[in-house]
Amino acid sequence: MSKKADIATRHLGVISQRALFHWRHLPPSVQAGYDPEDMIGDVVLKVVRVSARYSAKRAKEVTWVWWVADNECKFIVSKYACKKRGADKISPLPEDFQLAGPQFERHVVESRNAVERTIQFAPESARDLLSRLLTGRVRGRVDPETVESLRQAARSQHATLGDFMLAYRCMVV
Description:
Elements: H1 3-10, H2 12-23, H3 28-31, H4 36-50, H5 61-81, H6 102-121, H7 124-135, H8 144-156, H9 161-172
């Protein structure tokens, strides 16, 4: 066994502990196809790949492994966090299912109208936030007052989260 692999082997417990902790934060749709063992394996490979960067002068070996493992797990979770948004939460439809018919079309029109009214009557900051949410450009901290003003505008126009999700799906398709 190489010296690089020895570091990962000696601290497999630390790697496993960090991976299992972070695996629980993955969306259920990702957990279904990505086992904890897969995450542990990915983290072990990362530790082996970067083990040449370890310096005993800067940190204890176990501390360094903990830090690398934790950061790699956070990276993996952030990579799959986008799965929390979007259509992966929706169960697959049967092949013979059709999105047609007057009832569905009426629902789409009502949802679109509720979202359009919300956009029309919301303050500028709330419209900007909604635009960023629908285009996936939200980064960093969001002003709680802006979120609350968007909520109030949506409530006043009887727009639900389902209406916004339907509008988003119609935009993406």
